[in-house]
Amino acid sequence: MRVVLALGSNLGDRFDTLRGALDALFEKPDLTFVAVSPVYETDPVGGPEQGAYLNAVVIAESALEPRALLDRAQGVENAFGRVRVERWGARTLDIDLITVGDAVMDDPDLTLPHPRAHERAFVLVPWVRADPGAVLSGRRVADLLAGLDQGYVRPRPDLTLQRPV
Ligand SMILES: Nc1ncnc2c1ncn2[C@@H]1O[C@H](COP(=O)(O)OP(=O)(O)OP(=O)(O)O)[C@@H](O)[C@H]1O
Ligand SMILES: Nc1nc2c(c(=O)[nH]1)N=C(CO)CN2
Question: Where do the 7,8-dihydro-6-hydroxymethylpterin-pyrophosphokinase domain residues begin and end (predicted)?
Answer without folding.
Answer: 87-98
